[in-house]
Design brief:
The protein has 157 residues and is of the alpha/beta class. 41% of the residues lie in helices and 21% in strands. The longest helix has 19 residues.
């Protein structure tokens, strides 16, 4: 199985980008992982929020294949403990799934079409975080999930 973290907009804080890189490198020992960034839209000042979500949605959907399992990172999604999240990833892995995609939308969330394509929604917290921080937290939790599945000492209960 391949895991893709698909995110709208670049990470412009080098400290966060460096930490994301640390976890991406660690993940390579466990799974084929990639983070794919969809560039920010240009000239959004004259776009309505709905139009911006729709344009970002088109870009997101262009990166998704029919056979992919799509999980949207969304504040209204289901929350899991790290151990429960690890079991969820394991379940997807043993199901024969080729690619599991986690999607982080733009600043205003997802278009209706993206919500319709997503098969599940995941909330990292009831709190609101910057999209840059969400990337870091998501990559770290995916890494943590694999250490839990392998009974490695990274995670403590």
């Amino acid at each position: 199985m391949k895991i893709t973290l698909l995110a709208v907009g670049k990470t412009d804080d080098n400290r966060i980008a460096d930490l994301i890189d640390v976890y991406q490198k660690r993940l390579q020992h466990y799974v084929n992982f990639e983070m794919e960034v969809i560039p920010d839209l240009k000239n959004t000042k004259n776009m309505s929020i709905e139009h911006q979500k729709n344009e970002e949605g088109k870009l997101i959907l262009n990166k998704i294949d029919k056979s992919d399992f799509v999980t949207l990172l969304d504040e209204k999604g289901k929350s899991y403990s790290s151990s429960q999240f690890a079991q969820l990833i394991n379940k997807r892995s043993v199901s024969g799934l080729k690619r599991l995609i986690f999607v982080i939308g733009g600043p205003y969330g997802f278009s209706q079409e993206v919500y319709e394509r997503g098969q599940s929604k995941l909330s990292l917290s009831a709190m609101t975080f910057s999209h840059q921080m969400v990337r870091l937290f998501a990559v770290e939790q995916i890494y943590r999930a694999f250490t839990i599945l392998r009974n490695e000492p990274y995670h403590h209960e």
